[in-house]
Amino acid sequence: MSASIPENTDYRELTDRVKEWARDLGFTDIKITRASLPVGAETGLESWLAAGFHGDMDYMARHGFKRARPSELVPGSRTVISVRLNYWPGSAHDADQQLADPDRAYISRYALGRDYHKVLRNRLQKLAERIQQAVGPFGHRAFTDSAPVMEVALASQSGLGWRGKHTLLLTREQGSLFFLGELFTDLPLDVDQAIEPHCGRCTRCIDVCPTGAIVAPYTVDARRCISYLTIELQGAIPEQLRPLLGNRIYGCDDCQLVCPWNRFAVPTAEADFAPRHGLDSASLVGLFAWSAADFAERLAGSAIHRIGHERWLRNIAVALGNAPTTPAVLAALQSRLDDPSALVREHVHWAWARHGQSGGHESCADKE
């Protein structure tokens, strides 16, 4: 425990105040859990990594079991404050309609606005400052999908929700359309209790996955997951999976869109999460025309920006290959048949051939 904190601190009262401060800062909900996870978390992680389900995400294995041992990740941690913040953009173009139009680009609803990492991290830091004002300096560290933290495991252990069969956190009150964040502390705050899961026999999320990435309840093979393929994967998207991506160019929401609990989703009140630059209803051809400068300018401050212009074009090329054959689609693809990037060229040539056009099909290695 921090030596500067008064010995007579009432931690039950402090716990209540922390929760009040968190809600004052706009968090949808907050729970607190111990800075440790059961042994099962380690064995589950070990099995998942051994199966290769992490794909090219080497950092998942590089951190070893720190991911399942919060107190080793941040030495001295005693409790973890787990928070959630709704992101569903109520003003966005209907997600199902966008998915159903093969000429339009589907972007995961969480990425339509400002980068959530910045929003949550800033808010968690403000929460830490409020605590420090009350008790003095204390050990803490904030996380928002930014380190080897098993955030769903911690959140479910805290009672913030339960892990759904798609591996995301679910709540009865508002489904799963929210971000998670954590504040590790060395404070002995009162902890909350886990809640019972409420998925029952439902398998809609498993059944709807376009690529069959949910290989079993609570287990995702990232190598087949569209979010991994369009965001995390650095190289070429496997050819056998490309037709299954449809018009999804950044992430995938299918498993959440069909979840019965998300009928209770509450639109976000955060202006930062509102759609920017028409990304909620954009056309594939229009986005494919963006130059590197356009991409950098329009997506600055967005989570999408981190994949870079090259992978942005790679993803859209695949979607254009899955789109109906029209003069506009052919013209867009033809404009990038000789793109400077071997990665982009390979996907453009694949899409070009999908529309019955001659000109050959090259691999990334052909023109390096």
From TrEMBL:
<keyword id="KW-0170">Cobalt</keyword>
<dbReference type="InterPro" id="IPR017896">
    <property type="entry name" value="4Fe4S_Fe-S-bd"/>
</dbReference>
<dbReference type="InterPro" id="IPR017900">
    <property type="entry name" value="4Fe4S_Fe_S_CS"/>
</dbReference>
<comment type="subunit">
    <text>Monomer.</text>
</comment>
<feature type="binding site">
    <location>
        <position position="180"/>
    </location>
    <ligand>
        <name>cob(II)alamin</name>
    </ligand>
</feature>
<keyword id="KW-0479">Metal-binding</keyword>
<dbReference type="Pfam" id="PF13484">
    <property type="entry name" value="Fer4_16"/>
</dbReference>
<comment type="function">
    <text>Catalyzes the conversion of epoxyqueuosine (oQ) to queuosine (Q), which is a hypermodified base found in the wobble positions of tRNA(Asp), tRNA(Asn), tRNA(His) and tRNA(Tyr).</text>
</comment>
<feature type="binding site">
    <location>
        <begin position="252"/>
        <end position="253"/>
    </location>
    <ligand>
        <name>cob(II)alamin</name>
    </ligand>
</feature>
<dbReference type="InterPro" id="IPR013542">
    <property type="entry name" value="QueG_DUF1730"/>
</dbReference>
<keyword id="KW-0408">Iron</keyword>
<dbReference type="GO" id="GO:0005737">
    <property type="term" value="C:cytoplasm"/>
</dbReference>
<dbReference type="GO" id="GO:0052693">
    <property type="term" value="F:epoxyqueuosine reductase activity"/>
</dbReference>
<keyword id="KW-0819">tRNA processing</keyword>
<feature type="binding site">
    <location>
        <position position="202"/>
    </location>
    <ligand>
        <name>[4Fe-4S] cluster 1</name>
    </ligand>
</feature>
<feature type="binding site">
    <location>
        <position position="259"/>
    </location>
    <ligand>
        <name>[4Fe-4S] cluster 1</name>
    </ligand>
</feature>
<keyword id="KW-0671">Queuosine biosynthesis</keyword>
<protein>
    <recommendedName>
        <fullName>Epoxyqueuosine reductase</fullName>
        <ecNumber>1.17.99.6</ecNumber>
    </recommendedName>
</protein>
<feature type="binding site">
    <location>
        <position position="205"/>
    </location>
    <ligand>
        <name>[4Fe-4S] cluster 1</name>
    </ligand>
</feature>
<feature type="binding site">
    <location>
        <position position="227"/>
    </location>
    <ligand>
        <name>cob(II)alamin</name>
    </ligand>
</feature>
<feature type="binding site">
    <location>
        <position position="199"/>
    </location>
    <ligand>
        <name>[4Fe-4S] cluster 1</name>
    </ligand>
</feature>
<keyword id="KW-0560">Oxidoreductase</keyword>
<dbReference type="InterPro" id="IPR004453">
    <property type="entry name" value="QueG"/>
</dbReference>
<dbReference type="GO" id="GO:0008616">
    <property type="term" value="P:tRNA queuosine(34) biosynthetic process"/>
</dbReference>
<feature type="binding site">
    <location>
        <position position="209"/>
    </location>
    <ligand>
        <name>[4Fe-4S] cluster 2</name>
    </ligand>
</feature>
<dbReference type="GO" id="GO:0031419">
    <property type="term" value="F:cobalamin binding"/>
</dbReference>
<feature type="binding site">
    <location>
        <position position="169"/>
    </location>
    <ligand>
        <name>cob(II)alamin</name>
    </ligand>
</feature>
<keyword id="KW-0963">Cytoplasm</keyword>
<feature type="binding site">
    <location>
        <position position="67"/>
    </location>
    <ligand>
        <name>cob(II)alamin</name>
    </ligand>
</feature>
<keyword id="KW-0004">4Fe-4S</keyword>
<dbReference type="GO" id="GO:0051539">
    <property type="term" value="F:4 iron, 4 sulfur cluster binding"/>
</dbReference>
<keyword id="KW-0846">Cobalamin</keyword>
<dbReference type="Pfam" id="PF08331">
    <property type="entry name" value="QueG_DUF1730"/>
</dbReference>
<dbReference type="GO" id="GO:0046872">
    <property type="term" value="F:metal ion binding"/>
</dbReference>
<feature type="binding site">
    <location>
        <position position="252"/>
    </location>
    <ligand>
        <name>[4Fe-4S] cluster 2</name>
    </ligand>
</feature>
<comment type="pathway">
    <text>tRNA modification; tRNA-queuosine biosynthesis.</text>
</comment>
<comment type="similarity">
    <text>Belongs to the QueG family.</text>
</comment>
<keyword id="KW-0411">Iron-sulfur</keyword>
<feature type="binding site">
    <location>
        <position position="255"/>
    </location>
    <ligand>
        <name>[4Fe-4S] cluster 2</name>
    </ligand>
</feature>
<feature type="binding site">
    <location>
        <position position="225"/>
    </location>
    <ligand>
        <name>[4Fe-4S] cluster 2</name>
    </ligand>
</feature>
<feature type="binding site">
    <location>
        <position position="145"/>
    </location>
    <ligand>
        <name>cob(II)alamin</name>
    </ligand>
</feature>
<feature type="domain" description="4Fe-4S ferredoxin-type">
    <location>
        <begin position="187"/>
        <end position="219"/>
    </location>
</feature>
